[in-house]
Structures are given as C-alpha cells and as structure tokens.
Write a structure and sequence with these properties.
195 residues; alpha+beta; Cysteine Rich Protein; two-stranded antiparallel ribbon; 12% helix; LIM domain; zinc; Znf_LIM
C-alpha cells in the first residue's frame, strides 16, 4: 500500500515519522521522543545507541543482555553490581546455582569473618594472603615480604625466581645447590678432588 503524505513508520511506536523529527538507526526511523533504550528507557543518541536486529539499547543494557557473562563482565572497574537483570528479562545468576539468600537481620563482623574460607595461605609463613599483597611464584600465592630466596634471603622478582619442591630460590642459589657440578657450573672454577 502506498505511503500517502507521510514519512516512514517509527520503529518504536509504529506511527508516521516526519522528516523534522526523524532519527535513523540501523536502517529504521524513530521519533526523537521514541529513541529510547528498550530496557531502561534512557534517551539515546548516536554515541550511546547499540542496535541488535530491530531492538535499540543503551550500551550498558546491550552489554548486559548480549555481552559476555560472568564475574568482571559488563561492569565498570572495581564495581560490585547487585543488578539481577530482571528489567532485561535476564537471569544473571549462574545456571543451576540458587540465588544467595539475603539475611533478614544485619550480620556482625565476626560472623562475616567466619564465612570467608577461600583466602589463600602463604607457604612460607602460613598466614592469609590477600589480593593487595599477593605475588604468585611456583604456582602458589606468597606475601611480598615472604617472596625471598630460601637460602640467602634475597628478595625475588619474576626475572630471578626459580622453584623446587614448593620452595623459592634465587637463580644463583638454585644453580649452586641443584645445578650441574664441575668446571664452569655452579660457580666452581676448578675441579674438586675427591679424597
């Protein structure tokens, strides 16, 4: 049927869009007042719109609905989100895992501290290693202050660390104690005589 005396149909409200009020996105026309995120209803413009087939979203809602899922995805740096995705028709919880129950009464610090069990332990001192002080070596987490050679006590870095049987050594001590022996190896300059 011919389109007499009007413009294209709005992708959101299906009413006629006249040229003076038209915004085009993904080959479709919208009224300026209808150019809203389909999930959160935030006003969009050319820099904030993300289109998916016939749907338009703000970049945040688009990322939550169609982006990668899991911890650390779809959020700003350092954010902990309590967004469940209900307004997007999503279930952001892992499949098969129940939603965590919210306590009906406030918890005190001692009860909260008892619930933390997944804190790594330092192999050298046996104390908890938190993310701010963690250095990985030999596949294990270490405190920065414990990340030292087991023999000479020298502070280690990723460029001079070696590990053997769960213990850390500097390259010099490792070569002297566990490397090949003889001329040119392990710091020896002459052949040792056996008596």
């Amino acid at each position: 049927m011919p389109n007499w005396g009007g413009g294209a149909k709005c992708g959101a409200c299906e009413k006629t869009v006249y040229h003076a009020e038209e915004i085009q996105c993904n080959g479709r026309s919208f009224h300026k007042s209808c150019f809203l995120c389909m999930a959160c209803r935030k006003a969009l413009d050319s820099t904030t719109v993300a289109a998916h087939e016939s749907e338009i979203y703000c970049k945040t809602c688009y990322g939550r609905k169609y982006g990668p899922k899991g911890v650390g995805f779809g959020q700003g740096a350092g954010c902990l989100s309590t967004d469940t995705g209900d307004h997007l028709g999503l279930n952001l919880q892992q499949q098969g895992s129940p939603k965590p129950a919210r306590p009906s009464t406030p918890t005190n610090a001692s009860k909260f501290a008892k619930k933390i069990v997944d804190v790594d332990k330092c192999p050298r001192c046996g104390k908890s290693v938190y993310a701010a002080e963690k250095i990985m070596g030999g596949g294990k987490p270490w405190h920065k202050t414990c990340f030292r050679c087991a023999i000479c006590g020298k502070s280690l870095e990723s460029t001079n660390v070696t590990d053997k049987d769960g213990e850390l050594y500097c390259k010099v001590c490792y070569a002297k104690n566990f490397g090949p022996k003889g001329i040119g190896f392990g710091g020896l300059t002459q052949v040792e005589k056996k008596e």
